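Before surveying the methods themselves, we first show a specimen of the format, giving the amino acid sequence and backbone structure tokens:

:::
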Amino acid sequence: MAENNENRRNQRYIVEDIHGNVLYTADIEVLNISIDGAAIETPRRLEVNREYTFRINYKDISLSLKGNVVWALLTTRSKEGAQASVPVYRAGIKFTDVLSEKAEALLKFIEENRGKKARSHQ
């Protein structure tokens, strides 16, 4: 299922060097993020319509957010120096527990990172 950018209520911002993990599952890379959701990459498959807890880390900020997977797809990425590609899963997450304190921290996080140079994730 493809990501549908036109149905979002809030604009997402391309970010760099922001990583985290799905608790008890796998590390993630945040591709873009908004107050109500994010697109991520992970080496493990996430189930659509399932809620996960995500820990997002940047500098001295660590956010723990719950979210439902609304879309997921399998892509591949070439490893440096290797001939074979490795599986990479991309997923769209809709946050389910963004409360006032977490929303404020997430907005600060987005504001600090929204001006970064965008990189292609195609």
